[in-house]
Predict the 3D structure of the following.
Amino acid sequence: MEIGEFQRRLRDCYEARDRTRGRDATFAWFVEEVGELSRALRSGNRAQMEHEFSDAMAWLVSLATLADIDLEKACSRYAEGCPRCSETPCACPMDRSARFDD
Amino acid sequence: MEIGEFQRRLRDCYEARDRTRGRDATFAWFVEEVGELSRALRSGNRAQMEHEFSDAMAWLVSLATLADIDLEKACSRYAEGCPRCSETPCACPMDRSARFDD
């Protein structure tokens, strides 16, 4: 499924209630899911990890919808290798890459 | 871009350094990006929000790779409406939905 299609399906499913809840409260729910993901990673339980990764993804995507961000477009900066060094694999110094310092 | 393709491209770009860093440290970097996303949301700056959403997505996807989770498969539970009530839009009670209590 394309990232944009995933965002559209979640929007159709949850946008109305997400807007009622509001952006700050939705961010708080997302962070709660990040906590659950942390617990799942520590458990090592595969089904639980898969479940919590999908929940964290879904809340992050829903939050982007509330902020009117097109994630397909946003993520395109990672489509052609590292956004900083333009290489695949990334050739940035280990302590400094596009994903490390901004 | 499909979710699976996004995960593959990030894996090709970052998996080696992510495995060197380790899962806990990569989780910590992801959470740092979540903090930057929070700040971007408060700033209201569209370019900054787009940037930070893509970074948070990229770190979450990289973390899934380290945990050997196929995100395309994991996210498929959201493909056909709410995983709890199976409706689009979600018809769960506002205080209890598939994304709220598990």
